[in-house]
TrEMBL record:
GO biological process: fatty acid biosynthetic process; secondary metabolite biosynthetic process
EC id: 2.3.1.180
Signal peptide residue numbers: none
Domain named Beta-ketoacyl-[acyl-carrier-protein] synthase III C-terminal: residues: 253-352
Highest taxon, organism lineage: Bacteria
Organism for this UniProt entry: Flavobacterium succinicans
Alphabetic keyword roster: Acyltransferase, Transferase
A Pfam family hit: ACP_syn_III_C
Protein name: 3-oxoacyl-[acyl-carrier-protein] synthase 3
Length: 352
């Protein structure tokens, strides 16, 4: 038995934040000193590296679990199922619900339970829980659904990735421009057909790499040092991703029995355009090849990095023909891959 994605949905917040909206921000170095160059230079360099022109923020009255609920509704409608037949709700996030204007994470009750409540699922045997796995959380949730379904513990799972990163960023850190909000959700079911998941790979690197992403104080020395924000060592993450992700993808593909030339699309976590391009080039280099044109759909330039939501959102847009110059057909082989806090890496090969 394989698992199939039988329904997919996403929620893209309506608030568009352009790069130019950061013109008046006071960006500082880690020691609190001012940058040596003006914001237009900061923004130009940022765009050149990340590819991000815009990002989406959640409306003030909405929270991560609200975005997740909207995406889940769409996935359920897309799958044409009764939500009462869902055995597991697996919700990947990193920071819980964070009310607008605050920075405190709220995870009581779990966000998965909140989504179950919003969906009004009465069945007590529909088990709802959260997972914390950094940006690769949605893919890891799919791998957990695979374990439940192929072992006979479940027939149908709802796997969600949703986040409001805009509410945990330090406005004085230029890395804050990377982050965005959004949600993606999928219905996962068992199938005996030719299509579905063919192989997977997952790993955690936690010796030297554990704290590449962390919670730290604002770069503004006048702010409360006990208030924490998402921080990262960008160069270390870049080097880690190029070292570990292509190897994990190769291991995953080799286990599937699929040839590299049969892969039609690679959906990779939308973290940084230049980094993703470098990962793909290094992956193909492992096979002595260069990536074919159009292998990697991207949405980061318009949507930014919404962490766990990027991969399911990208898949939703691709399957619905909403990514320019990209399409997918029945029987096509897709590879999903991600990297993020932990440091975690995962991938799976899927026949559409």
């Amino acid at each position: 038995m394989k698992i199939q994605i039988t329904g997919i949905g996403s929620y893209i917040p309506s608030l568009k934040i352009h790069n130019t909206d950061f013109d008046k921000h006071v960006f500082l170095n880690e020691d609190g000193s001012a940058f040596a160059y003006p914001n237009d230079v900061v923004i130009s360099k940022f765009k050149g590296i990340t590819g991000i022109e815009k990002r989406r923020y959640a409306e003030d009255h909405l929270n991560s679990s609200d975005l997740a609920y909207f995406a889940s509704q769409k996935a359920i409608e897309n799958a044409k199922i009764d939500p009462e037949t869902i055995d597991y709700i697996i919700y990947a996030h990193n920071f819980g619900d964070v009310n607008h204007g605050t920075i405190q994470a709220d995870t009581l009750p779990s966000l998965a339970t909140r989504v179950k409540n919003k969906l009004q699922i009465k069945n007590p045997k529909c088990v709802a829980y959260d997972i914390l796995f950094g940006c690769p959380g949605w893919i890891e949730g799919v791998l957990q659904a695979n374990a439940f379904i192929t072992s006979g513990m479940a027939k149908r799972c709802l796997v969600i990735g949703a986040e409001t990163l805009s509410r945990v960023v330090d406005a004085h850190d230029r890395d804050s421009m990377i982050y965005a909000d959004g949600a993606g959700a999928a219905i996962i079911e068992g199938s005996d057909s030719e299509t579905g998941m063919l192989s997977y790979e997952s790993g955690t690197f936690a010796i030297d790499e554990a704290n590449y992403l962390f919670f730290g104080k604002s770069y503004n020395q006048d702010l409360n040092p006990n208030t924490r924000y998402i921080k990262m060592y960008g160069r270390k993450i870049y080097e880690f991703a190029l070292s570990k992700v292509p190897a994990a993808m190769k291991s995953c593909l080799d286990k599937s029995g699929i040839e590299i030339n049969q892969v039609k699309k690679i959906l990779i976590h939308q973290a940084n355009e230049k980094m993703d391009e470098a990962i793909i080039h290094r992956f193909y280099k492992l096979y002595g090849q260069t990536p074919p044109k159009g292998i990697m759909p991207m949405c980061i330039n318009e949507l930014g990095n919404s962490s766990v939501a990027t991969v399911p959102t990208l898949y939703d847009l691709l399957t619905k023909g909403q990514i320019e110059n990209h399409e997918i057909h029945k029987g096509d082989v897709i590879m999903f891959a991600s990297v993020g806090a932990g440091m975690n890496v995962n991938a799976f090969v899927y026949r559409y």
